[in-house]
Design goal:
Chain lengths: ~625, ~210
């Protein structure tokens, strides 16, 4: 491995337990802290989804076991309607922000950015540590809202006013909603602190030879996702502040002539659409914050396991940038049903359809990478291919919903639940699983069990389709989302109840399958097969460090990069992978197009090399 | 074994460059980082803070425009504006002195302290402006223009307070030349940004 003898002053590794594992400034420890915390939030969100399934599947029926476990949410063995709304709100909030955003940006961002850029740590380790602790504080505030009088927020994860703005609207509109807003504001502060660090590290701390166009796609995806977060989260912060003022100080930013319980509130002039604009200005880019990092992870894993260079690397990078840009001009498609000028809705339709283009480019490139590859199918690869499958399924229905004519019909139905969950709950989560299985050996020096991993994949893959695919059908039939029950409204066909039962059984099986994953995770920490430094025979820099990497990652010698990250199966090479640190004199490169015009490279001692591919 | 090569100051981390951030940021081009890391960090922070003010301001522009009301500022606001502008000028002057002298000397320290003092005076003045409005019976709930005046000036004030904390941290570290050289420019950039934001807010609050 080529290294640069910077002999940088490696600061003393902390020796106390507190500084090493709790208040650590090491990006790898912070990554694990984020992953554990976000994982716990994800488990809580998962249990909430099970609770929501109960009244939908067995309306009015007593479920004694659940009532015994969660006595505060059930009455007479039946989940209370207000508890259902609270579970629905908190499930969405926890899963979108506190699980997926946190594990992808906080977890994988922290783990991979310094390692794959060739840095010793983040640019500002103290701010990085602070970011995690502020995130934990936001989690605690959000969870505390479950236990206050009136229960947790119940206005949906989108918190639309007036339901979220008037404390007397529903039980969850009280203190629970206030805590929801405070927790979100604190979460945003944490996200911005993290994002500043990620962007700065990518731009300024890349190691010698690591040009932007040599960065692995994982880093590109995390980099653009961090930029999106930096630009979009402040809008929701602004919205949350105004909403808190409406709730507690009598302002009327979102309220206009509201009557609650027969009483007219002295609020006028406000408009709930203002909240919708501010929310969706973050809300839509947010889904790209959640899907870009999995796209990067999947690109890495597919290239590695197809033993081929990623197909059209530059197109992949430009697609990530295009998605990042376009994500800011599509938010209005969430508001077609709120009433909108027809020309404006046409504009949002156009941008929504355009964003499908770079997404399709990426999909075709994954397929192009797989095509005629020497495919291997370890668990990360299965989840990566599962990601491509579900991204196509879920992405296509997004094109349906981008059209206002169809969206107005389907917007408040289970069709949207199906679309959203196939992309977010399945694709993005598959990206997370793929990443955990792939980088677990780097994090802990051991491999996860392949047998358990494959079982976990197949149960999850089939289970997710079992849950969400039938929801399209329910949506077409007109089943509204967010409803606790339908009472005497018997307009739905009788077979819907059978579908609900099928979905719920799938949900329980899929949920139970995650226990396999948790067992595998814990078992492998102690009993997993010891991993060598580069068990996947991969090219990116992190695999040149020991597993797990030491404090400071690289010892005394910084790595020097001579090539891109995708030199797999290069003709004439001695093996089918060539790490980025192998000089061009030693091995050829497959970076053909750029090789001819490459600028001189600097080696560790400043000597110029020509790209010899 | 501890090695000895010094990390270039522009790529050191917040911990004073004891260890982190020696990736180099050169990329294949060997051209050095885009700008010093601390400066880049602050520019990105400015982008984030700018988005917050952009969100609040766009809401204000639409709502105040719809309501067709504006707020007559209390006269003290103009005095506060002058004080904030003065703080920026004095800080710029201190920055220039430090740039020439390499670190804080008594003259530049006085200027620096003056800038911090002006910042504090500005905040006190803003509290005075709020007090005057309350005395006139103009409250947060009186009109959209009043509501946005309180919200925008409060948001600005919180960020000014953050700037004062950063300047104070520099004051505490005034004898540590490396810290001063690395952070004075970025903190000053943030401070000047807040001055510009203030003028933008005054203009927005007067739009009809």
């Amino acid at each position: 491995m080529a290294t640069q003898p910077t002999a940088a002053t490696v600061h003393q590794e902390p020796t106390s337990f507190w500084r090493r594992y709790i208040f650590s400034m090491d990006h790898k420890v912070i990554a694990i802290q984020y992953m554990i915390t976000a994982g716990l939030m994800g488990i809580i969100g998962l249990v909430m989804s099970w609770l929501m399934r109960m009244p939908l599947t067995w309306p009015g029926e007593s479920i004694p076991i659940a009532a015994k476990i969660f006595p505060g949410l059930f009455e007479g063995g039946v989940l209370r309607p207000d508890a259902y709304l609270a579970m629905m709100t908190m499930h969405g909030t926890l899963m979108v922000f506190f699980f997926l955003t946190a594990i992808l940006l906080g977890g994988f961002g922290n783990l991979l950015i310094p390692l794959q850029c060739g840095a010793r740590d983040m640019a500002f380790p103290f701010v990085n540590m602070l970011s995690y602790w502020v995130f934990l504080l936001s989690c605690l505030i959000m969870l505390a809202s479950l236990f206050v009088t009136g229960g947790a927020a119940a206005a949906g994860w989108t918190a639309y006013p007036p339901l979220s703005a008037v404390a007397a609207a529903v039980p969850g509109s009280g203190l629970g909603q206030t805590l929801w807003l405070i927790a979100m504001a604190v979460f945003i502060v944490s996200s911005v602190m993290g994002g500043l660090n990620y962007i700065t590290t990518v731009l300024n701390l890349r190691t010698q030879g690591m040009s932007m166009m040599r960065l692995p796609l994982t880093v590109w995806a995390l980099f653009v996702a961090a930029i999106i977060g930096l630009l979009a989260f402040p809008a929701l912060f602004a919205g949350a502040v105004l909403l808190l003022l409406d709730r507690h100080l009598g302002t009327s930013f979102y309220l206009d002539h509201i009557v609650v319980g027969g009483q007219h509130l002295a609020r006028e002039g406000g408009n709930p659409l203002l909240w919708q604009h501010l929310f969706w200005f973050l809300g839509h880019p947010e889904v790209y914050i959640l899907i870009l990092p999995p796209m990067g992870i999947v690109s890495e894993i597919i290239a590695n396991n197809a033993r081929k260079p990623i197909f059209a690397y530059r197109a992949m990078v430009y697609s990530i940038i295009a998605i990042g840009f376009l994500s800011f001009i599509v938010w209005g498609h969430h508001m077609f049903v709120s009433g909108m000028n027809i020309w404006l809705s046409a504009a949002f339709t156009l941008t929504t359809l355009i964003i499908a283009v770079p997404s399709a480019v990426k999909t075709f490139n994954w397929l192009g990478t797989l095509w005629r590859g020497k495919l291997r199918f370890p668990t990360p690869m299965l989840f990566a291919i599962g990601f491509v499958s579900t991204f196509v399924t879920g992405g296509l229905t997004g094109i349906f919903l981008g059209n206002p004519t169809i969206d107005i019909q389907l917007h408040d139905t289970y069709f949207v639940v199906a679309h959203f969950h196939i992309v977010m709950a399945t694709s993005a989560v598959f990206g997370v699983f793929a990443g955990v299985y792939y980088w677990f050996p780097k994090m802990f020096g051991r491999l996860m069990s392949e047998r358990l991993g494959k079982l976990h994949f197949w149960l999850t893959f089939l289970g997710m389709y079992g849950i969400f695919f039938p929801m399209h059908y329910l949506g077409f039939m007109g089943m509204p989302r967010r409803y606790y029950g339908f009472g005497l409204l018997q307009y739905l066909a009788p077979d819907t109840q059978a579908i609900q039962l099928f979905i719920t059984i799938s949900a329980f099986i899929t949920g139970a399958a995650q226990l396999l994953f948790l067992y595998n995770l814990v078992w492998s920490l102690w009993r997993g097969k010891r991993a060598e430094a580069n068990p996947w025979q991969a090219n990116t820099l992190e695999w040149q460090a020991p597993s797990p990497p030491p404090h400071g990652n690289w010892g005394e010698h910084m790595p020097v990069v001579y090539r891109w990250a995708y030199d797999y199966s290069v003709p004439g090479a001695s093996q089918d992978f060539i790490p980025q640190t192998v000089p061009l004199e030693q091995e050829p490169t497959g970076e053909h197009r750029r090789a001819a015009v490459a600028a001189p490279e600097l080696s560790g001692n400043g000597e110029a090399h020509r790209n010899g591919g | 074994m501890r090695a000895t090569v010094v990390i270039p100051k522009e790529i050191r981390g917040i911990d004073g460059g004891r260890f982190r951030g020696d990736g180099g940021g050169r990329g294949a081009e060997g051209g050095g980082p885009l700008m010093p890391t601390a400066q880049l960090f602050v520019w990105l922070l400015i982008v984030g803070v700018g988005m917050l003010f952009a969100a609040l301001s766009s809401a204000a522009i639409v709502r105040i425009g719809l309501d067709g009301q504006t707020l007559r500022f209390p006269p003290i606001v103009w005095g506060n504006t002058a004080v904030l502008l003065l703080s920026s000028l004095v800080l710029g002057l201190a920055q220039w002195h430090v740039g020439r002298q390499g670190m804080f000397q008594p003259s530049s320290l006085r200027l620096f302290g003056g800038a911090v003092g002006c910042g504090l005076l500005f905040l006190l003045g803003q509290l005075g402006a709020w007090y005057e409005l309350i005395q006139q019976g103009i409250l947060l709930t009186s009109s959209s223009a009043a509501a946005f005046f309180y919200v925008l000036t409060a948001a600005h004030g919180v960020h000014v307070l953050g700037g004062i904390v950063a300047l104070s941290a520099l004051w505490i570290n005034r004898r540590r030349g490396a810290v001063v050289r690395r952070w004075l420019g970025p903190v000053a950039t943030y401070w000047h940004f807040l001055t510009l934001v203030w003028f933008a807010l005054l203009a927005i609050l007067q739009l009809r």
